[in-house]
Amino acid sequence: QVQLVESGGGLVQTGGSLRLSCAASGRTFSGFVMGWFRQAPGKEREFVADIRWSSGISSYADSAKGRFTISRDSAKSTVYLQMNSLKPEDTALYYCAAGILGSAYNYWGQGTQVTVSS
Length: 118
Fold this sequence. Notes:
Helix content is 0%, strand content 54%. It contains no helices and 11 strands.
């Protein structure tokens, strides 16, 4: 049974930083892509960044480019999202997701709240 457990959210001031973690378990993730998504109140869930587990190739939403960095530690089976220069509009519930490369994400975590105060 695949489990994704997010942590690292919290309250931070504008311009601050947070590092989110996603501990993945239940199988090996080679051939998978791991993603971060977020959902703000009253808005649809949106893509933030993803990384291919095996190659480390990553991609970002325009809103995340230059400020966020996704990475993974295969030994710890953990994916990270380093978020710098945070803005109030980054406030959202952040989710970790996993899926076979080329297919839909079919595993989701419970989310971790990020709140950026102005």
